[in-house]
Amino acid sequence: MAKSKSNKPVSAAQEKHGAATSLKDQVGGLMKSTVALRRELHKWPEIGNTLPKTREQVLTALEGLPLEIKLHETTSGIAAMLTGDKPGPTVMLRGDMDALPMPEDTGLDFASKTDGYMHACGHDTHTSMLVSAAKLLSDRRGEIPGRVLFMFQPGEEGYHGAKFMLEEGLLDVAKNKDGSESPITAAYALHITSSMPAGTIGTRSGPIMASSDVLSIKITGKGGHASEPFRTLDPIPVACEIVQALQMMITRRIETFDPAVVTITKLVAGTTTNVIPESALIEGTIRAVSEKTRNKVHDSIRRVAEGIAAAYEMQATVEIRIGYPVTVNDAPSTDFALEVAESLLGEGKAVRMPSPIMGAEDFSYVLNKIPGAMVFLGGTPEGVNSMTAAPNHSNRVMFEESAMAHGVALYASLALRTLGVTLN
Ligand SMILES: [Zn+2]
Ligand SMILES: [Zn+2]
Fold first, then answer.
1. pTM score, two decimals?
2. Structural domains of the chain ordered from first start
3. Catalytic residue flag (residue 401)
4. I need a surface site. Which of 50, 242, 362, 363 has the fewest CB within 10 A?
5. How far apart are CA 130 and CA 273, in angstroms?
């Protein structure tokens, strides 16, 4: 146990423990409950924006802490505010709580007990780590000049949970008791991944995750007999040409160093072998890492689809459903997170990622308003190769639970150090 340095005044937290407890010791003391809560959450996954059981589990775990808790009404979101003994700004930490609609095949003894639902993205670990960070920081309340806002959000997996929480006033924080403002100056989110070794973290400044939009194109022609295509307007070859042309559009109209992905995942037309159908449907996903390219891809898809259909006297109706924006890390916050992570995990363990990931994240809505960073936490199970480990969203994905200690320490350190607390 670390000793209290020199003759500095002893904080409430230190008094409680009789001596200054190091962050590492604090995290160590919380690991049993961190693992237990994670397993309990894992057993009872819920999806979307309504997570009654999960919310109850989180509230029970937070019971007794000096937090001001706001239960969101449009979703199962929880905003828990810790106010330090001294006035100062606010730091926000995000943990998402939702699972995925898929079966679990891990064989773990705490595997999902709800058929067809699984915590396959590790959000159970995020929730549990954030609860433990709340406990740790509550214990250090006496030395905190400012506040920490814990954002427990539902609906990350495509349900815009973060956006709903923002719309419900998540960022409207009250003033300090002395009347001074307490703006949110930084926001951080962690995401565990089974594809990075435990004991490492990775992030990058600028875009870290892509935007994600859903594409649907309906080509309308004129049905008829399969033996007489000239008397019909056959939408099938047109649909095929559009699929090919979209790939060409990506390589020839989009800047090489500001890339985008258009993947057609669904192509539906026809009913039998001797009928030319009236219409064909193309669906897929659009990813980009800048708003500029995102908009350009949307315009180009319309132009290409409508133009090709028109060339064959048909019509293409393009519908683009807007999903999450690009997740953009603020450069100073990213450098800071890497530095904090390195001080916790050791030299070479905080990795600057060379490129973004083309998945999407609704923490993007938060980072559009508050400077901060999304950080990946290595969680490959011990003895497994990171490159071949079942990835996040796999029915067999598993995470190294001891990596949660790094996550708890990182959450807490990011908050403390942002607020100017020096850690021993
Ligand atoms: Zn996910
Ligand atoms: Zn996720």
1. 0.91
2. 12-210+326-418 (3.40.630.10), 211-321 (3.30.70.360)
3. yes
4. 50
5. 57
